[in-house]
Design goal:
Number of helices: 13
Strand order of the largest sheet: 5-4-3-6-7
CATH class of the largest domain: Alpha Beta
Mean pLDDT: 93
Low-confidence stretches: none
Largest sheet: 5 strands, parallel
Radius of gyration: 21 Å
CATH topology of the largest domain: Rossmann fold
Shape: globular
Number of strands: 12
Structural class: alpha/beta
Strand content: 15-25%
Amino acid sequence: MGGINARGKMRDFKPNRIVCLTEETVETLYLLGEQDRVVGVTGYAVRPPEVRKEKVRVGAFTSADIPKILSLNPDLVLTFSDLQADIAAELISKGIDVHAFNQRSVEGILSMISMIGSLVGASKKSEELISGYAKKLETLRKKERKVIKVYIEEWDEPMISGILWFSELVQIAGGVDVFSDKSKNIDAKSRILEPDEVIKANPDVIIASWCGKKVRKEKIAARRNWKSIPAVKNDLIFEIKSPLILQPGPAALGPGLDQICWILDSARDRLRG
């Protein structure tokens, strides 16, 4: 997108000073080769590794250093959902352009990648990236294997089941999320579980990813009356680090999904033995 400036030359109107307040938008811009447009990132950004050295950190997920963001003179700030609504509102009141993404599913992740490509004039690259992910997802969907029942735990106290994109990726990898009905609930409160619900669901595998906190498998196994659950009885409790699966972006479709596949394949081998 461009226009004619005072000297009669084409002016580039694409954003050139972007602040990303979520991990997935940072990673997407790097994958598109558009990292030079990024001037500030969330403190949680770790992918790719060089982002830690190259970009200014401007806050956490639900808090941001507004003066620091303004000092970077951004022409676009990328946020996520109502969780960052207050930050977005304050930036808008300061005259900053803000785009809020709201992807909660695998399809939403692909749409987010496409939209970022459009925003920065990299639609061809974004469509190539999406095509690669789509082929991977379709190949996994068509693969024949034994279906395994999976309990996804996103938090431990209180126990919270997995969000939609996590649930969908488990299904794509040949598993069945035993609480898939709850995964469609956007707010975490609606996904809170009682321990007896998991006992009744009787999962073969437990995949835990406690947002920003190390999973303690022994703590899960020691829960009252959980010894009878196949996942506990057969020592099939696994962790996926939250940066790989709890951010709805390229990491989830890449290494996050790869780890889910490895976990379920390992479980199948163990259960056969």
